[in-house]
Amino acid sequence: MEKQSLKKIVVGPFEVNCYIFTAKNKTFIIDPGAESKKIIDFIKKNFLIPVQILLTHAHVDHISGVKEVAAEFNIPVYLNEKDKGLYLSPANSIAPFYPALKEHALTVNTITSDLIEAINTPGHTQGGTCFYIKEYSLLFSGDTIFQESIGRTDLPGASHKQLLESIKTKIFSLPDSTLIHPGHGPETNVNREKCNNPFF
Fold it and tell me: What kind and span of H or E run contains 119?
């Protein structure tokens, strides 16, 4: 197994975890939610070559830095098609912290690496997606699951029942040792959440 690296950069007033993941000479940027300059500066300082932005979902706190980062490196943006409407919606804002975006980067529905599997985990949003990297036992879960918690389901398009089903069938079916890197807060793993998550 080749060497991989992972950097977490916490961005924006809602402290979104933006991840910079590198393996097999390819760098992916996951959820550049704000503070695009901080993200760009880290990538340049470490001489990384990003190939794609991956979005776990389209809530504004996870996408506000996308356009600037995508333009800086001229790279495509992956987003599940089921979240495209949310991504472009002028109602996708959290005043006064995150105003609605006036411009958006174009999105695609394919990932430029066979290393990364996109797993649709609807519930927090309909297009919510976890990115699973089997070779390194990593899962980037966005706002689907957190350490001993789960994503909010009191927002438009969300479903508590659907979210629990997604976690049980698509995340808890992964190996217990799989490290979970969520959209907010500290990392956890599948076994810890099976045993300690109060929602299960």
Answer: strand 117-120
Phi, psi of 157, deg, nearest 5: 85, 0
Asked if residue 175 has a cis previous peptide bond (ω within 30° of 0), the answer is: no
Q: Write down the pTM of the prediction.
A: 0.97
User: Angle 192-151-191 (CA atoms, 0-180°, nearest 5)?
Assistant: 10
pLDDT of residue 2: 63
**CA 32 to CA 176: how far, in whole Å?**
28
Domains of the chain: 4-196 (3.60.15.10)
In whole angstroms, give the CA distance from residue 47 to residue 15: 25
Residues of the chain scoring pLDDT < 70: 1-2
The residues with which 129 forms a beta bridge, in sequence order, are: 120
CA distance 95 to 87: 16
CB contact at 8 A, 113 and 154: no
Which residues are CB-contacts of 183 (< 8 A; sequence separation ≥ 6)? 16, 17, 31, 56, 62, 141, 142, 143, 146, 151
Count CA within 13 A, CB hemisphere, residue 130. 31
pLDDT of residue 3: 81
**pLDDT value for 121:** 98
